[in-house]
Specification:
- The protein has 252 residues and is of the alpha/beta class.
- The chain contains eight helices and seven strands, in the order E-H-E-H-E-H-E-H-E-H-E-H-H-H-E.
- Helix 3 runs parallel beside helix 4 and helix 6 packs across helix 7.
- 44% of the residues are buried.
- The chain binds NADP nicotinamide-adenine-dinucleotide phosphate (NAP).
- NADP nicotinamide-adenine-dinucleotide phosphate (NAP) binds next to helix 1 and helix 6.
Length: 252
């Protein structure tokens, strides 16, 4: 198997896209470490995959520092997938400083801290993979999600910058940019749209589906498939990219 002997950290690996990524990497032989705040979810995934679960709120710098120490105690991280993220929405005039700070802390500062912690050992081993789960909202603007959009644009900037630093060191650094994916994040968006517009949840969901020319939501496994393509040996030339998996939505 491609990832035999490798250890992979997937933040937000307890559900949704992160869980699908953890499952895919484990199926390729990696020992996975999953993090999240919801103990039952990370325990379930780690238990099933024979991996490790580390409970941490990525928005809490001190807790993140302790989690990094605990993860480092278990050995080197060869594959870092910064997947955890939050997506609060509001018109810009109702986007508070706190909302902005939360988005930047979880979606950007935590990936930076984890990269800073685990990149040196990858460089030393002359093999490593960093994959940041951004969003199409990191490439184009989306109304009513200015804090989220700003944080995902920042995450792509971080990806490109780190990629340049380690380009000749056997480590690749990339971002994946999903469109709407069938997870709790979409369920919450559907609920919000229905509530604010007075439309039915079915109508709200269909609006999201129509944002893709394929007229559908992406499955978490499709994002995991792209991540695996980057992590596997065949992906070693793909570097500093922000790869879209959205059924073609950002091309129009
Ligand atoms: P999800 O089901 O809501 O999962 C989010 C994950 O992030 C959960 O495992 C959650 O765990 C973790 N997380 C959130 N805040 C955290 C915090 N403060 N500390 C630690 N962990 C935290 O959503 P998803 O769709 O799988 O999202 C995964 C990633 O994909 C996110 O970065 C998101 O921005 C991105 N994305 C999603 C979509 C979409 O349509 N679903 C589209 C584009 C990009 P706990 O709640 O247990 O902490």
């Amino acid at each position: 198997m491609t990832l035999e002997g490798k250890r992979a950290l997937v933040t937000g690996g307890g559900r949704g896209i992160g869980r699908a990524i953890a499952e895919r990497l484990a199926a390729e032989g990696a020992r996975v470490v999953v993090t999240g705040r919801t103990r039952a979810e990370i325990d379930e995934v780690a238990g099933r995959l024979g991996g490790e679960a580390v409970e941490v709120d990525l928005g809490d710098r001190a807790a993140l520092g302790r989690a990094i120490e605990a993860i480092s105690g278990g050995g080197r991280v060869d594959v870092l997938v910064n997947n955890a993220g939050i997506a609060e929405s509001a018109p810009v005039v109702r986007t508070s400083d706190e909302m902005f700070d939360r988005a930047m802390a979880v979606n950007v500062a935590a990936p930076l801290a984890l990269t800073r912690a685990f990149l040196p050992a990858m460089v030393e081993a002359r093999w490593g993979r960093v994959v940041n789960v951004a969003s199409v909202a990191g490439l184009v603007g989306h109304a009513y999600t200015s804090a989220y959009c700003a944080s995902k644009h920042a995450l792509i900037g971080l990806t490109r910058s780190v990629a340049l630093e380690v380009a000749d060191k056997g480590v690749t650094v990339n971002a994946v940019c999903p469109g709407w994916v069938e997870t709790r994040m979409v369920e919450e968006a559907v609920g919000r749209i229905a509530k604010t517009t007075g439309r039915s949840e079915g109508d709200a969901r269909s609006t999201l589906e129509k944002m893709s020319p394929q007229g559908r939501l992406i499955e978490p496994g499709e994002v995991a498939h792209l991540v695996m393509a980057l992590v596997g040996e065949g992906g070693r030339g793909i570097h500093g990219q922000a790869l879209v998996v959205d059924g073609g939505g950002v091309m129009r």
